[in-house]
Amino acid sequence: MPKTYQDIVYPSAAAAALVHNLVTNRMPFPANGKNGLLIYGPSGTGKSTLAQLLVQDIPAARGGRPVFAVTHPIITTGGNNASLLQSMRKKAETLFVMEDLNLFILHEVDLLGNAAMRSMKSVMDMPCTMFVMTTNDISAVENGVKSRSHLIDMTAPPAAQWLNQARQHLATLGVTKPVADQELLPLIAGCHGDVREILTQLQMLALDLAA
Known about the structure:
Layout: H1 13-23, E1 36-40, H2 47-61, E2 68-75, H3 82-92, E3 101-107, H4 114-124, E4 129-135, H5 143-147, E5 149-153, H6 163-172, H7 181-189, H8 195-210
Parallel strand pairs: 1-4, 1-5, 2-3, 3-4
Helix pairs in contact: 3-4
Protein backbone atom coordinates (compact mmCIF):
# COMPACT_ATOMS: atom_id res chain seq x y z
CA MET A 1 0.00 0.00 0.00
CA PRO A 2 1.19 3.57 -0.68
CA LYS A 3 3.05 5.24 2.17
CA THR A 4 3.32 8.75 0.68
CA TYR A 5 1.68 10.71 -2.12
CA GLN A 6 4.67 9.82 -4.31
CA ASP A 7 3.67 6.14 -4.21
CA ILE A 8 0.32 6.83 -5.86
CA VAL A 9 -0.16 5.85 -9.51
CA TYR A 10 -1.55 8.99 -11.18
CA PRO A 11 -3.34 9.10 -14.53
CA SER A 12 -0.92 11.68 -15.95
CA ALA A 13 2.33 13.51 -15.30
CA ALA A 14 0.29 16.71 -14.92
CA ALA A 15 -1.76 15.23 -12.06
CA ALA A 16 1.39 13.99 -10.30
CA ALA A 17 3.08 17.38 -10.72
CA LEU A 18 0.07 19.25 -9.34
CA VAL A 19 -0.02 17.12 -6.20
CA HIS A 20 3.75 17.45 -5.72
CA ASN A 21 3.65 21.23 -6.10
CA LEU A 22 0.76 21.56 -3.66
CA VAL A 23 2.32 19.29 -1.03
CA THR A 24 5.72 21.00 -1.17
CA ASN A 25 4.17 24.49 -1.32
CA ARG A 26 5.87 25.28 -4.64
CA MET A 27 2.31 26.24 -5.48
CA PRO A 28 1.23 28.09 -2.33
CA PHE A 29 -1.74 26.42 -0.69
CA PRO A 30 -4.08 27.50 0.74
CA ALA A 31 -3.82 30.68 -1.34
CA ASN A 32 -5.62 32.80 -3.92
CA GLY A 33 -9.00 31.91 -2.52
CA LYS A 34 -8.40 28.18 -2.94
CA ASN A 35 -8.40 26.11 0.24
CA GLY A 36 -9.82 22.88 -1.11
CA LEU A 37 -8.39 19.79 -2.76
CA LEU A 38 -11.06 18.01 -4.79
CA ILE A 39 -9.97 14.51 -5.81
CA TYR A 40 -12.16 13.07 -8.52
CA GLY A 41 -12.41 9.78 -10.38
CA PRO A 42 -14.29 6.48 -10.46
CA SER A 43 -14.52 4.08 -7.54
CA GLY A 44 -11.40 2.17 -6.61
CA THR A 45 -8.70 4.39 -8.13
CA GLY A 46 -7.21 5.48 -4.79
CA LYS A 47 -9.00 8.75 -4.05
CA SER A 48 -9.57 8.07 -0.35
CA THR A 49 -6.03 6.78 0.06
CA LEU A 50 -4.62 9.92 -1.54
CA ALA A 51 -6.81 12.10 0.67
CA GLN A 52 -5.41 10.48 3.83
CA LEU A 53 -1.85 10.72 2.51
CA LEU A 54 -2.24 14.43 1.77
CA VAL A 55 -3.28 15.01 5.38
CA GLN A 56 -0.04 13.28 6.40
CA ASP A 57 2.32 14.63 3.75
CA ILE A 58 1.42 18.33 3.50
CA PRO A 59 2.63 19.27 7.02
CA ALA A 60 5.55 16.82 6.84
CA ALA A 61 6.86 18.46 3.65
CA ARG A 62 6.61 21.92 5.21
CA GLY A 63 8.54 21.29 8.38
CA GLY A 64 5.47 20.52 10.42
CA ARG A 65 3.37 23.50 9.28
CA PRO A 66 0.50 23.91 8.90
CA VAL A 67 -0.59 22.04 11.98
CA PHE A 68 -3.95 20.39 11.50
CA ALA A 69 -4.90 20.96 15.11
CA VAL A 70 -8.38 19.60 14.48
CA THR A 71 -9.22 17.08 11.76
CA HIS A 72 -12.88 16.48 10.99
CA PRO A 73 -13.71 13.40 8.89
CA ILE A 74 -17.15 14.01 7.38
CA ILE A 75 -19.40 11.27 6.01
CA THR A 76 -21.89 12.58 3.47
CA THR A 77 -25.21 10.79 3.28
CA GLY A 78 -27.35 12.58 0.71
CA GLY A 79 -30.33 14.79 1.50
CA ASN A 80 -29.92 18.49 2.24
CA ASN A 81 -27.36 17.96 5.04
CA ALA A 82 -28.23 21.33 6.61
CA SER A 83 -27.24 20.10 10.08
CA LEU A 84 -23.94 18.80 8.72
CA LEU A 85 -23.04 22.19 7.26
CA GLN A 86 -24.06 23.97 10.49
CA SER A 87 -21.83 21.61 12.48
CA MET A 88 -18.91 22.24 10.11
CA ARG A 89 -19.38 26.00 10.42
CA LYS A 90 -19.33 25.83 14.23
CA LYS A 91 -16.17 23.71 14.20
CA ALA A 92 -14.49 26.12 11.80
CA GLU A 93 -15.16 29.00 14.20
CA THR A 94 -13.25 27.37 17.08
CA LEU A 95 -9.68 27.71 15.79
CA PHE A 96 -7.93 30.97 15.02
CA VAL A 97 -4.31 30.13 15.84
CA MET A 98 -1.79 31.63 13.43
CA GLU A 99 -0.68 29.10 10.79
CA ASP A 100 -2.86 26.34 12.17
CA LEU A 101 -5.86 25.02 10.30
CA ASN A 102 -9.14 23.27 10.81
CA LEU A 103 -9.03 20.43 8.32
CA PHE A 104 -12.20 18.90 6.94
CA ILE A 105 -12.10 15.61 5.02
CA LEU A 106 -15.27 14.96 3.04
CA HIS A 107 -15.58 11.67 1.23
CA GLU A 108 -18.08 11.51 -1.64
CA VAL A 109 -18.86 15.21 -1.40
CA ASP A 110 -21.16 14.80 -4.42
CA LEU A 111 -23.68 13.16 -2.07
CA LEU A 112 -24.42 16.50 -0.43
CA GLY A 113 -27.83 17.77 -1.43
CA ASN A 114 -28.19 20.84 -3.63
CA ALA A 115 -28.88 23.22 -0.76
CA ALA A 116 -25.97 21.92 1.32
CA MET A 117 -23.67 22.04 -1.71
CA ARG A 118 -24.50 25.72 -2.18
CA SER A 119 -23.85 26.35 1.52
CA MET A 120 -20.42 24.72 1.24
CA LYS A 121 -19.12 27.88 -0.41
CA SER A 122 -19.69 29.99 2.71
CA VAL A 123 -18.09 27.33 4.93
CA MET A 124 -15.06 27.20 2.66
CA ASP A 125 -14.75 30.99 2.89
CA MET A 126 -14.15 30.80 6.63
CA PRO A 127 -10.58 31.56 7.78
CA CYS A 128 -8.12 28.91 8.95
CA THR A 129 -9.82 26.11 7.07
CA MET A 130 -8.72 23.52 4.54
CA PHE A 131 -10.85 20.93 2.78
CA VAL A 132 -9.81 17.60 1.27
CA MET A 133 -12.72 16.15 -0.70
CA THR A 134 -13.33 13.13 -2.89
CA THR A 135 -16.02 12.56 -5.48
CA ASN A 136 -17.02 9.87 -7.95
CA ASP A 137 -19.04 12.44 -9.91
CA ILE A 138 -17.37 15.81 -10.34
CA SER A 139 -20.28 17.05 -12.43
CA ALA A 140 -22.44 16.89 -9.29
CA VAL A 141 -20.13 19.26 -7.38
CA GLU A 142 -21.23 22.90 -7.33
CA ASN A 143 -19.11 25.24 -9.46
CA GLY A 144 -18.36 27.52 -6.52
CA VAL A 145 -16.89 24.58 -4.58
CA LYS A 146 -14.80 23.61 -7.60
CA SER A 147 -13.61 27.20 -8.02
CA ARG A 148 -12.38 27.22 -4.42
CA SER A 149 -10.48 23.96 -4.95
CA HIS A 150 -7.58 22.50 -6.86
CA LEU A 151 -8.99 19.65 -8.96
CA ILE A 152 -6.89 16.48 -8.71
CA ASP A 153 -7.51 13.93 -11.44
CA MET A 154 -7.66 10.35 -10.17
CA THR A 155 -9.26 8.70 -13.15
CA ALA A 156 -7.87 5.31 -14.16
CA PRO A 157 -4.25 5.59 -15.36
CA PRO A 158 -2.99 3.75 -18.44
CA ALA A 159 -1.89 0.22 -17.58
CA ALA A 160 1.72 1.02 -18.51
CA GLN A 161 1.94 3.53 -15.66
CA TRP A 162 1.36 0.70 -13.21
CA LEU A 163 4.31 -1.41 -14.37
CA ASN A 164 6.93 -0.14 -11.89
CA GLN A 165 4.59 -0.36 -8.90
CA ALA A 166 3.31 -3.76 -10.03
CA ARG A 167 6.84 -5.16 -10.14
CA GLN A 168 7.66 -3.66 -6.75
CA HIS A 169 4.54 -5.24 -5.31
CA LEU A 170 5.38 -8.61 -6.81
CA ALA A 171 8.83 -8.36 -5.23
CA THR A 172 7.24 -7.79 -1.80
CA LEU A 173 5.21 -10.94 -2.47
CA GLY A 174 8.41 -12.91 -2.98
CA VAL A 175 8.46 -13.03 -6.78
CA THR A 176 12.07 -13.03 -7.93
CA LYS A 177 11.78 -14.06 -11.58
CA PRO A 178 11.15 -11.33 -14.20
CA VAL A 179 7.58 -10.89 -15.40
CA ALA A 180 7.20 -9.61 -18.96
CA ASP A 181 5.22 -6.49 -19.82
CA GLN A 182 3.07 -8.62 -22.10
CA GLU A 183 1.87 -10.57 -19.07
CA LEU A 184 1.36 -7.63 -16.72
CA LEU A 185 -0.30 -5.14 -19.06
CA PRO A 186 -3.48 -7.11 -19.83
CA LEU A 187 -3.78 -8.14 -16.18
CA ILE A 188 -3.66 -4.48 -15.10
CA ALA A 189 -5.84 -3.19 -17.93
CA GLY A 190 -8.55 -5.72 -17.07
CA CYS A 191 -8.91 -4.13 -13.63
CA HIS A 192 -9.98 -0.76 -15.10
CA GLY A 193 -7.99 1.25 -12.59
CA ASP A 194 -9.40 -0.45 -9.49
CA VAL A 195 -6.41 -0.54 -7.14
CA ARG A 196 -7.86 -3.25 -4.92
CA GLU A 197 -8.46 -5.50 -7.90
CA ILE A 198 -5.00 -4.84 -9.32
CA LEU A 199 -3.39 -5.82 -6.02
CA THR A 200 -5.60 -8.92 -5.83
CA GLN A 201 -4.67 -9.99 -9.35
CA LEU A 202 -0.98 -9.45 -8.62
CA GLN A 203 -1.28 -11.63 -5.53
CA MET A 204 -2.93 -14.35 -7.59
CA LEU A 205 -0.14 -14.06 -10.17
CA ALA A 206 2.46 -14.40 -7.43
CA LEU A 207 0.76 -17.59 -6.22
CA ASP A 208 0.74 -18.99 -9.76
CA LEU A 209 4.43 -18.20 -10.22
CA ALA A 210 5.27 -19.87 -6.93
CA ALA A 211 3.41 -23.07 -7.82
